[in-house]
Amino acid sequence: MLLAPRSKFLLIGDSVTDAERTRPVGEGLFNAYGKGYVANVEALLSATIPDHAIRVVNMGCGGHTVLDLKKRWQTDVLDLKPDWLSIAIGINDVWRQFDMPLITEAAVALETYAATLEELVVQTKPTLKGLILMTPYLIEPIKTDLMRARMDQYGAVVRDLAAKHGAVFVDLQAAFDDALTNRHSSSLAWDRIHPNAAGHMVIARALLKAIGYQW
Amino acid sequence: MLLAPRSKFLLIGDSVTDAERTRPVGEGLFNAYGKGYVANVEALLSATIPDHAIRVVNMGCGGHTVLDLKKRWQTDVLDLKPDWLSIAIGINDVWRQFDMPLITEAAVALETYAATLEELVVQTKPTLKGLILMTPYLIEPIKTDLMRARMDQYGAVVRDLAAKHGAVFVDLQAAFDDALTNRHSSSLAWDRIHPNAAGHMVIARALLKAIGYQW
Amino acid sequence: MLLAPRSKFLLIGDSVTDAERTRPVGEGLFNAYGKGYVANVEALLSATIPDHAIRVVNMGCGGHTVLDLKKRWQTDVLDLKPDWLSIAIGINDVWRQFDMPLITEAAVALETYAATLEELVVQTKPTLKGLILMTPYLIEPIKTDLMRARMDQYGAVVRDLAAKHGAVFVDLQAAFDDALTNRHSSSLAWDRIHPNAAGHMVIARALLKAIGYQW
Amino acid sequence: MLLAPRSKFLLIGDSVTDAERTRPVGEGLFNAYGKGYVANVEALLSATIPDHAIRVVNMGCGGHTVLDLKKRWQTDVLDLKPDWLSIAIGINDVWRQFDMPLITEAAVALETYAATLEELVVQTKPTLKGLILMTPYLIEPIKTDLMRARMDQYGAVVRDLAAKHGAVFVDLQAAFDDALTNRHSSSLAWDRIHPNAAGHMVIARALLKAIGYQW
Amino acid sequence: MLLAPRSKFLLIGDSVTDAERTRPVGEGLFNAYGKGYVANVEALLSATIPDHAIRVVNMGCGGHTVLDLKKRWQTDVLDLKPDWLSIAIGINDVWRQFDMPLITEAAVALETYAATLEELVVQTKPTLKGLILMTPYLIEPIKTDLMRARMDQYGAVVRDLAAKHGAVFVDLQAAFDDALTNRHSSSLAWDRIHPNAAGHMVIARALLKAIGYQW
Amino acid sequence: MLLAPRSKFLLIGDSVTDAERTRPVGEGLFNAYGKGYVANVEALLSATIPDHAIRVVNMGCGGHTVLDLKKRWQTDVLDLKPDWLSIAIGINDVWRQFDMPLITEAAVALETYAATLEELVVQTKPTLKGLILMTPYLIEPIKTDLMRARMDQYGAVVRDLAAKHGAVFVDLQAAFDDALTNRHSSSLAWDRIHPNAAGHMVIARALLKAIGYQW
Amino acid sequence: MLLAPRSKFLLIGDSVTDAERTRPVGEGLFNAYGKGYVANVEALLSATIPDHAIRVVNMGCGGHTVLDLKKRWQTDVLDLKPDWLSIAIGINDVWRQFDMPLITEAAVALETYAATLEELVVQTKPTLKGLILMTPYLIEPIKTDLMRARMDQYGAVVRDLAAKHGAVFVDLQAAFDDALTNRHSSSLAWDRIHPNAAGHMVIARALLKAIGYQW
Amino acid sequence: MLLAPRSKFLLIGDSVTDAERTRPVGEGLFNAYGKGYVANVEALLSATIPDHAIRVVNMGCGGHTVLDLKKRWQTDVLDLKPDWLSIAIGINDVWRQFDMPLITEAAVALETYAATLEELVVQTKPTLKGLILMTPYLIEPIKTDLMRARMDQYGAVVRDLAAKHGAVFVDLQAAFDDALTNRHSSSLAWDRIHPNAAGHMVIARALLKAIGYQW
């Protein structure tokens, strides 16, 4: 597995990452890791390879865009000194363009998204042993859906940044596209964004496979 | 307007109709009509043509299919002796085929849907001054979406029954398709089913236009 | 319609405007516009002319008088840079004279009301593309009722200010008087102030008609 | 005082009487008498003439009409064997004609009201040492208000029944008309029906004066 | 009545005065005066002599001693500029000596009580049109009860201060002693301090009689 | 200790015994024994002589008199087949005579109390290995208090029945009288009935001493 | 995998299985499968092999012993016609012997446990395509712990029954023993019974491995 | 008894001491002492030797380690000027090493524990009349349990510090070992740390015996 034993693994993102984690720092006893894919990752690592002693920290915040991440980057990422960092951001950057189209300041344009995310990557990469970038997604197989098409543009930004900066790339959109082969999106998420338990496991598995975890 | 003055107008359906109406009968003081299109219809009629004295009754129930309607038809429709009746059912009949595909008994197949709905129409039409049949819908403009395609089949059943039995036909799917010309579905309903306030107004207007109401 | 496409339309007032809107700013997802006439206005605009892209913002606050509005004018109106502004204030200015007659500092005298409202109008008009002034009201057709008589004096101030400063004038008292032709006040509001759903629709329609909206 | 020492005094009525009394029987410790005029009556009798040992029982029920009283008369009046009985009913019988005019079965027509109330009086008077009949009221001094005018008709029924059957008559409408000499209705009750503390004291005093209580 | 028309009448004290009044100032709509004797006083004045326009303000605070009163005297009495002031304090000063005898700093010794209360009287009397001093009490007729005996000492301080400074004196202990002639203390207050509705009426009547109020 | 190892010890009574025990049967995990003297007894026995394996069952019910105990005797005592039984009843039988003197059916007269308690004793004694009778009490040292005097009469009944039927007698009144030597009743119970933690320990110790328990 | 595609897989047990599942039947939308190992199993199957269409049903009930299972076997197992059944019972049968040793009827003796479990197996096996028996466990590696030793006896019964009746055997105790190699029990469950997320994953993996599931 | 009459006895510690005590200072009316051993100690002292007038103050805080105690030592111990002080700390210092082994900063290493505790003792001892040091514990009789073994090391520190600084030593681990002779740990605490009522009594008795209290 890419993560060396005793790594501190911090995962940051939006509500999909958050999933009711504990504040101010999402680690410890009693569902501190939330109810989503971070909890799955922590439970799988802790249950199957406890000797690796991977320390998981969930720093997701519901509703956040990349601009919100930037505001709390110092306290919520740098100060916590992770060895590995996973960033999963962009869904709200896009979604607000579609669900509140008139409130334009709530969304984040593609250029701003790309520049801000790269700024965070450049700032943080040197402090890390490893960086994981996960794409935003819409759990919708029809690529002509306007929001799916836009999300794919943001996902391409993530793919390019991962390649440019040597980060591990996790294509969550592809993982969900694959999961949708035999099912309708509503069986994974009514709103095509917030996954049910099965949907969170899709994310967890994509992430874990990308870092070479074996069950 | 089609409804004669002093008509009693009962609207039955699923959660879209229900919208937190009062139990056991959805009429009276204090949000008795719920928070959805039925409340809009009642407020518009009451605010603008109070002299018509149209009495509105909301008998929607969240989660119901046409089979659930049949079980409560005597107490919730016939016993209340409406002059006009609106039926908006079918969303759950279809949705359960997609969000819980393995629990097959939770959904209603097309033939059962058609037969049961017609049975209710035939039983009730003679007691009414007017009947309105509204199609189920998915707030999704892409007709190749599997659930949209299926929903259209159920909507076609409603269209045929309306024509066959002389009911007023309200094509809610068409109303939403029209509303989606300049916007994404997520601005009307995150889950493409439960409308926000604007989405409920789309339904209310489609219904009111069909019965000849003028603002 | 008077409002040009893509206008930002801010509505300020008391509890009738507020109606449980979101804080600090009443716009966005999930009933952010409250449950009253502002929500009706937003739903009607959004449902029927989404291409006009009118952005609605609800800044009502329960219990407020014109003096309370003045205190929060900078943050709650000017800073939000609306194109159009609707002001509906005065009910509490009058009501406190009658429901708590001994606590004289809680009410606002006619002269203070007139001077303060004009001050806000003069300060704000130049920054706007359009201004709407709505009268306070008592849902009571008998004009000899002491509070109704007093409310009419405050309404006259609004009428005069609208004429003097070229604002769109909405006579809510007249709208309710009209609505009361065939009904008792208690069918619109038990306390003759806080409307039920039908009463809020009366307000919404009066406002929308004044700005040339067509259903 | 008319009530002999050690009398059991039961008061029945609607929400004005109820005022959050204890169920099933409104007497005993801890606000069992509610928060309205019955509690005032009990407190005044208990505080000032405890040696008279008047036992007070509150059997009001919110929303009730005279038809609702009839349904629970056996258990809630006769079975409790009061010495004195006060009946204050009729507000909802009238109100529903005005606040829900289309739901006609919710109100009670004048003839039905008169006949039912007389039936209860005739049935019960022989078992009592004294009967008190209180008029329904609207806290509104303008007698041309439609609901006030209708309420006065119901009050006249009470007056006539009291005279015919030798009951103590308490004209609550007159008591409130008197209280409104120097004030607006909104200082006693926003909805002109449910009194605040001062309004409940108006009722309590009218009742106590009628039975010859001296402070 | 001693209070001239349009007097502002402020009542300060402990939990018996407080009785769940509104914060920060106990006056206005919706039970602002609490559920105790202050509410009774306000309701009686408002219901029977509204033309006197006596404005009542409840500034009681549960658990307070005279030292607590002193700390909030500026904001809670002087700043509110009452015409008449009623002070009812001392119960907790004594009670803490008996229910928490080891936590000696929680109680107030007799000398401190006397000096502090006189300090407040001297400071405030010149600003008032009238001052009322009410004794602390224990609803217990047996004067050899240790707490009753101690309470009587504090009551004597109040009596002396009233005489010395020309205040209206209300002997609440005497009022309760009188009320206990035909009953046990438990019918007025289980803990002999916090009165039920009848007990609060005993206080209200004693106070109102002392200022010459006629029912 | 009187109770043989492995005895099942059931304690029945009113709110003092109940103390928020679990329903339907007060034994088991998680505060099942309530927060009063029964919990103390259970904790002391369990902590110090677990090898005796005394099984404690709390069957107290708040507000109960001896007549209420009789109604549930079969299910709440006999069916549970205790080896030892403690009965602590009578407080409400007396209290209701003083706190609600007019509601005479709520209290239990001395003769009824004596007869009913004896009936329960006679019925149950043969099924038991040991019976404990505890007196009702008022935490009040002044024996001329009317309620204390009455309570002493009921306590005397218990004493006589214990002597007559060979039951262990626990004089709770005496225990509290002793505890009041150096303190006021308010430091053990504000209402002189419901003890605080120290007061419950007084009861527990009196009971345990009577059965020969050594700490 | 042992389970054929489209199998209905019912899991019954105690609180570890239950984990806040939906009532009356634990399947469907919105966390219907609870928060424990059943949810993990469902999520893993649904996320990774949706084409197998395994239908999972959680029928665990907190606190239950094998005797409780027997009482609800008809409605909760047989009537639901599962293809595969997993039984995980015995923890409470043993635990009650240690945490409430005096309440002997709350626990289930080894012989009763063995006989009852076998009765259920014999009755149900013929209706199934496959049966899984999971051992009870204590997350405690020291086998001389009295409760661990007893639990091992119950686990041996399960092992024997599995062998005798051809059921798939899942040794949860062994799975936890393995998981405890590098950690203390408190990192998996404070009370050594109710697992945290990692502990539930231990169970899920043991079960899935036993049926040949590949991640 | 070691504590002289009128001593102020402060007990500080973690959640076992805290037990839902009142904030900011754990003394006074209404369960201010919490629900644990401190409440037992207070109740026993207050019930049996009230003339000693021992004033008990509970300053426990859930989750605290010795480092947390140090942070609040000035306000929570020194400022309160106790005569006697009991310190029961160390459980969380150890537990965090086992239940969250990766979050190493949450636990306190043995050397830090010893040095910090001694620092507090040295700082405080001169201000006290007496100091009590209680060991941390695990309610687990098997000394090879890793956490028990570690806890014993911390307990040895306490023992040594008590001997070195002349403090009263209370070996809670020994008290629980003794209590476990005839029972399993689960009958005293499911998680082997937080005692039930019997377990708290074990602590209370050990403490009281150490200071020479006689029941």
Keywords:
homooctamer; 215 residues; alpha/beta; 11% strand; globular
Describe this structure in words.
The structure is a homooctamer of 215-residue chains. Helix content of chain A is 43%, strand content 11%. The first copy, chain A, has 215 residues and is α/β, with parallel strands linked by helices. The mean pLDDT of chain A is 97. Chain F binds chain G through residues 6, 27-29, 53-55, and chain G through 99-103, 106.
How many β-strand runs of chain A?
Answer: 5
Overall pLDDT score of chain A: 97
Number of helices of chain A: 9
- By oligomeric state, this entry counts as homooctamer
Helix content of chain A: 40-55%
Order of neighbouring strands in the sheet with most strands of chain A: 2-1-3-4-5
Poorly predicted segments of chain A:
none
Radius of gyration of chain A: 16 Å
How does the major sheet of chain A shape up?
5 strands, parallel
Relative strand content of chain A: 5-15%
Q: Structural class of the secondary elements of chain A?
A: alpha/beta
Which geometry of chain A do the CA atoms define? Answer: globular
Distance between the termini of chain A: 11 Å
Q: Greatest interface and its residue counts?
A: A-G, 29 and 29 residues
User: What is the N-to-C succession of helices and strands of chain A?
Assistant: EHHEHHEHHEHEHH
